[in-house]
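Recap for those who missed Tuesday's class. We walked through two folding examples back to back. For each one, the amino acid string is listed first and its predicted structure tokens come directly after. Nothing is annotated here on purpose, so try labeling regions yourself before you check the end of the notes.
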Amino acid sequence: MQKVNMVSNEDVIWAGVVTYHPDLIKLKNLVNTLEDQVSKIIVFNNGGCLDEEMSKLFQGSDFEIIGCGENIGIAKALNEICKLAAQNSATHVVTFDQDSSPSNDFVNGLHEFFVARCVANRNVAAVGPVFVDERGIKEVLPVFQAERWWVKKINPLNGEHTAICASLLITSGMLLSISAWKTIGEFREDFFIDHVDTEWCLRALNQGFELFVCPSVVMQHEISDESPKRLFGRLVLKYSPIRRYYAYRNTSVLILEQGTPRGMRIYFFTTLCYRFFINLLVDKNKIRSLVAMLTGVLHGVIGKMGKR
């Protein structure tokens, strides 16, 4: 396919932050950290906070609040941010959750990494950092690579890599090319939340793009509602029943999608099965979680998508 990525010293990078009932202090810290790293910050109000409350915190920052305060889902919020950036000639967007904690040189580090990959004649859609959750046990998220029959998990901090090809990236901290986003297509809005980034990344790979993780750029990130734990050697993430629903529904859709690599399908199916029992061991409201997971699988199979 024809390469669409062009990088130069004139690249214009915007930041997009999707908020939902945010901790305003954490949000303020994030905006303050980003204001000297990007050309503009877009805060998408996806619910739970008045624009006036956020505006008071960000005086002096080059930012804009969009969104009506209604929860329209992370996928649509990301698309609206990318559309606005594209309309204003931005070349890249770096996306964040409201509780992300990037360093002061985070964006520059990812951009230099992106440029280096493109100079090496790679057709790059997006790059991402290494994620570390410092709560409880210190958990380093592995990089996932789809193989023929399974998924390979790579420790990004083992010192063996300067760049790691990935099969998926997390939207928080992801630096994406606007030109690639236009070619690949928008984030799938009927997913609403959970695996929005996974589906887009797999679509990017199917269209001949590449994704990379930069081992030298690390970001603290809370990967679940509570601090992660391990049970029977497996990472346990605690979520509310509604998040269980979206996770099981959207994972079921990915398993059925022809564009999902076989090794990833097998991994997703196996994960759904064993996490079904693990989740019931750790979730507080076991009956609601049970119903949510079973309903999610059913809706994924019959194609009942969108907001629950």
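Example two. Treat it independently of the first, because the proteins are unrelated.
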Amino acid sequence: MREIIKEPNSLLHQQCQTVVNFEEARQIADELLLVIKSVSKWWNRWLGFAANQIGYSKRIIVLRKSKNEYEILVNPILIEKRFPFPFIETCYSFDVKKYYLVKRYFWTKVKYQNLSGNFCENIIKGPSAIFQEMDHINGIMVSEIGFRLLKFSCPPHQKN
């Protein structure tokens, strides 16, 4: 299984290349699925990974749809976005958990190709990892567009 690329790797800051070889895309998608399944937790419904996070500069993302269901989007393009809202995100490409407040959308229309090269359109409703993964394949990290949230800790409980 591929290792998740971490900051400050320059691959995370480069716009990924359009996929033209769908045999290669299937191989990359298989690796992306292994990685996403390895980090999936029952509570993490809004999970995704981009190809550049595992070392490929290709416009391929995987999104978790439900417990054991994933969707592969090749050459995705966000066509329309509606209903912005603030959302807190982190990224597996950070060495240390850092949280950022970002603007995301409750509704979006995405056009993409499937692994056979056929064009598809999908409407995604509710919070989704698609926005962060689109940022990834465009060479943008959440740390570059979000407001960093600091973690506050309480002092340890003292017994009297």
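Answers for example two:
The chain has three helices and six strands.
The longest strand covers residues 69-89.
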